[in-house]
Design a protein that fits this description.
The protein has 282 residues and is mainly alpha-helical. Helix content is 68%, strand content 2%. The radius of gyration is 23 Å and the shape is globular. GO terms for molecular function: CDP-diacylglycerol-serine O-phosphatidyltransferase activity.
Amino acid sequence: METPFPPFDPEGRPRPRLGGSIGKVPIRVLLPNLVTLLALCSGLTAVRLAIEERIELALAAIVFAAILDGVDGRLARALKGTSRFGAELDSLADFVNFGCVPALMLYFWGLNEAGSFGWIAALAYAICAALRLARFNVMLDDPNKPPFAGDYFTGIPAPAGAITVLLPIYLELIGLPHGRVSAIIALVYCLAIAFLMISTVPAWSGKTLGRRVRRDMVLPLFVVVAIYFALLASYPRVVLSVCTMLYLALLPVSTLRYRRQMKAWKAERAAAAPTPSEVLPS
């Protein structure tokens, strides 16, 4: 008896012919995709919570989605379960979770008080998130990038953009007054983060950090991570505000470091390049 569902191949290869055997997909390939879908559910739930004015729970949902976004890719690589389907699903989920959802949350929170300009700012942020993700996917296979380029993002990544763009909400929850002036400031700030996402600012990615941990640093690392998440759970508004400000403050440092590495790399290439006398035949 034939299955009512078409055969699924995570790599997008052609389907087997009619009557052919249907292979099985390993669970290790499906598991990262399930984590991505869970992140998507969390992000969409944040929209509902924002509409219901349960803003703190909405923030928790978007932070949880960001954590899951950092887990699914690493889980796929650890399980050797990467696939084309997973990459496409992750990109689409990132656009919804870190493009559409923060824009809607900001609009429901206070950008609507700025009238049509508030909606334009929300649209601009979502569009910039889509453009940033599209550029990221295109640049993955760039053969000309320097070896250290993997340590940096071109522009701030979508998850970081989502966490940072919500800073006005964190500050209001801490106690800052909310009004039409704060809505206008939030509008300008939203546009600034949107342009940072599509800019060429090199933002340190941290991808190479933590691949190997010294044995004597394992226990201190556990303690630091546990303390951080305990603080995040106990004082989420303050921790998110401080982390956002630190991240933005470190962008110039990341840029200077990238430029120094680029200068050294170009000098190394120039020194290794053959001179004209070496190229011309004798």
